[in-house]
Specification:
This protein is an alpha/beta fold and 278 residues long. The chain folds into 2 domains: 3-109, 2-Layer Sandwich (Nucleotidyltransferase, domain 5), CATH 3.30.420; 129-275, no CATH class. It is built from 7 helices and 14 strands. The protein has helices spanning 46-57, 70-83, 94-104, 150-155, 170-173, 192-202, 235-250; strands spanning 3-14, 20-27, 34-40, 64-67, 86-89, 129-130, 139-146, 161-163, 180-187, 204-210, 215-221, 225-232, 254-260, 270-275. The strands form 3 sheets. A 5-stranded mixed beta sheet has the order 3-2-1-4-5. The protein has a 5-stranded mixed beta sheet with strand order 7-9-13-14-8. Strands 6-12-11-10 form a 4-stranded mixed beta sheet. Strand 1 and strand 2 form a beta hairpin. The radius of gyration is 21 Å and the shape is elongated. InterPro entries: Tab2-like (IPR009472), Tab2-like_C (IPR046761), Tab2-like_N (IPR046760). Residues 119-275 form the RNA-binding protein Tab2/Atab2 C-terminal domain. Pfam families: Tab2-like_C (PF20429), Tab2-like_N (PF06485).
Length: 278
């Protein structure tokens, strides 16, 4: 399946008439294929984008275009719909984000540079929302599992909702089998499947410990969504949370979220391999 990563958004540059310039960047995961085009802000629309996508594709059309920037999404969806291409909103456009950061170093050397504060991959995120009360299970806890045991423990189990992307498998990240991969286990009780389905719909990205008053666990999901999974003031839980954070730093940010009906370890409802964003 052919997959493109694309971004179409304004840059800290203006053309000779003073108009803000937008840039279209397209690449594949290896960056063997790339495409770049400039557009004055007054010309930004789906039709312009359709013409550029046709030019970029030639005879090699993608099946999917991945987009990480919410402000690019609606335009890309409108253009891709005309061409029969699926659009996937995802934060996982690592190659494109690296290219954007490299491009940003070139803008100050270009004519029309505005010198405004600019972060090429920054996304404004709303404050986190509390997890819907009707979804919350019986209890939760921090846990860990050796990296070498993850695929065996979960890969072949009949788990209704299982998200283990190839790119996040410990072997593909080069993690030693003995590295402790941290995670959070939620015993959902009778709400276990309802919670797992809700999680599947919001598309989990990472589950992060945030120190504060109180401390909390924040679920990053979708493109910009954030949810408060739990808050706590207990010192023992806070110590476990810091260990969870430390283990993430040793596992390249890899961690997991497991939803199960109870703590018997016999059945699982949902399992997600996650990775903290850089």
């Amino acid at each position: 399946m052919g997959i493109w990563q694309a971004d179409f958004y304004r840059r800290p540059l203006r053309d000779a008439t003073g108009q803000v310039l937008w840039e279209l960047l397209i690449c594949d995961a290896t960056r063997h294929f790339t495409y770049q085009a400039w557009c004055a802000q007054s010309e930004v629309n789906a039709n312009w984008l359709v013409a550029q996508l046709r030019q970029a594709a030639g005879d090699n059309w993608p099946d999917v275009i991945q987009v990480f920037r919410p402000q690019s999404l609606s335009l890309m969806e409108a253009a891709a719909q005309q061409l029969g291409i699926a659009v996937e909103p995802t934060r996982g456009t690592t190659t494109l984000k690296q290219w954007l950061q490299q491009r940003a170093l070139q803008y100050p050397k270009q004519e029309g540079y505005t010198a405004e504060a600019y972060n090429p991959i920054a996304i404004d995120k709303p404050p986190p929302l509390p997890l819907p009360e009707n979804l919350w299970g019986d209890r939760w806890r921090f846990a860990s599992i050796p990296a070498g045991n993850i695929e065996e423990a979960f890969g072949d189990r009949p788990i209704p909702i299982l998200e283990m992307p190839e790119s996040l498998l410990p072997l593909n990240l080069g993690l030693a089998s003995t590295v402790a991969v941290p995670g959070v286990i939620i015993d959902g009780g009778r709400k276990s499947m309802q919670l797992a389905r809700w999680l599947q719909n919001v598309t989990p990205v990472s589950l992060n410990y945030i120190a504060g008053a109180p401390d909390g666990l924040i679920l990053e999901a979708g493109l910009v969504d954030r949810w408060v999974v739990a808050t706590f003031e207990d010192t023992e839980v806070a110590t476990a949370a810091r260990m969870y954070e430390q283990r993430q730093s040793l596992s390249q940010g890899l961690h997991f979220l497991l939803v199960q009906p109870d703590d018997s370890g016999m059945t699982y409802t949902g399992f997600w391999l996650l990775q903290t964003e850089n």
